[in-house]
Structure formats: C-alpha cells, structure tokens
Known about the structure:
Elements: H1 10-14, E1 29-33, E2 39-48, H2 52-56, E3 61-65, E4 74-75
Antiparallel strand pairs: 1-2, 2-3, 3-4
Amino acid sequence: MSQQTSCPNLSNVIAHDTGPKARFAVGDAVTFTNPQGLVFPGKTIVSIDASAWARESGAPRYFITPTDTPWYSFPESELS
Length: 80
C-alpha cells in the first residue's frame, strides 16, 4: 500500500535560489586579504557557505583552508 502526500510548495523549495552566483569553486586556489590589507596567499576553497546567514549577506561566502577559524566563512570580496 502506498501513500501519496501532497506538497504544493515542493517545487518552490527545490527551485529556491541559494544566493548570488559564486565566483570561486571548490578546489580553487585563492589569496585572502583581510580588511587591514594583510595578504595571506596559498588558501584553497573547501566549501561554499550555504547557510541562511551567508545567503542574507548578499554575496557568496567561502570556507577556506588552511585557516585558524574553520567555522568562519570568508566573504568573496576578501578573496582573489
């Protein structure tokens, strides 16, 4: 016996925009420049932040390695 449930908003959930288009992809080598202008080359994108907080910031945010703050996602504006 199969039971079918109706979810009228399912297509909206699936098609939901996850935020602005990302400039970088996982595996890309990047340089991080902090707001004070210090440059940290040799970083790698390991993940794109898909959290609600990141989406609401209006610009893509990325997790990079190596870093001392693996829980913090960096804004695209600080990466090159």
